[in-house]
Amino acid sequence: ETLSVPDFPAALPGVDLPAALRRLSGNRELLLKMLRHFGQQWSGAHESIHLALSTGDLQQARQTVHTLRGVASNLSMSNVAAAAEALEQALKREENRAIERCLETLAAALAPVLAGLERLPPTSPLAVDVGPLDHPRLERQLSDLAQLLRRQDMKAEACFAEFRECLGAGEWADAMARLEQQLDRLDFAAAGTTLAEVAEFLGVQKGKTGTEGRTL
How many CB atoms lie within 10 A of CB 210? Predict the structure, then answer.
């Protein structure tokens, strides 16, 4: 379902918005949130890769570039993704001249994207209605979300948004905030671990499958 978001941009440099929206089942609010997060997280990407290279930490540089490529690809930033992939290949071959050239290309691809994202309107806080918990629905969402995380499926973001709305505020707030950040970074493995914590708060851990959860 497409949410009507008043400030949704008609276009953004370097981002295929229609394609990115299709990946998120048309959820504009969620796409805006992920784009804003990309702008914050990757504004210093060129500097941090350059720093890792100048200190000889090729492993760190490769990891940063690999993550950037995945996130850019998921957000349909094809120029950035292609430039990151070329740099990743040059780093694997450890060709210094190619690495420098590819890093410049990546910086040039990132610049218009980041400039466009800086002009996005600020986010509006979502009102959370706290009512009695709908446990059967929460358990269904928990298991769906866990499955999406295991498959590293982008739909996990949309599923999380629905789960958070159904869950409301409570003692699990810290874990949910952490889970949200991990999903924004597309760190599906860490998000899976945090989701298990949330499940424990809700008392829907292993007990449901007949094997009791650990008692702490």
Answer: 6
Residue 82 CA from chain centroid, whole number: 19
| 3-state SS assignment for residue 22 | helix
Token pair recorded at residue 159: 């599923």
pTM score of the predicted model: 0.60
pLDDT digits (tens, 9 = 90+) for 76-85: 999 999 999 9
Question: Token pair of 14, please?
Answer: 């370097």
Give the Cα separation of 68 and 45 in Å (integer). 8
Contact between 26 and 49 (Cβ < 8 Å): no
Distance of alpha carbon 60 from the chain centroid? 20
Nearest CA to 188 out of 158, 153, 213, 137 is that of 153
User: What domains can you pick out in the chain, each with its CATH number?
Assistant: 17-118 (1.20.120), 135-209 (no CATH)
CA distance 178 to 118: 24
Give me the amino acid identity at 148: L
Q: How far apart are CA 75 and CA 181, in angstroms?
A: 16
**Tens-digit pLDDT profile for residues 49-80:** 999 999 999 989 998 999 899 889 989 999 99
R_g of the chain, CA atoms, integer Å: 19
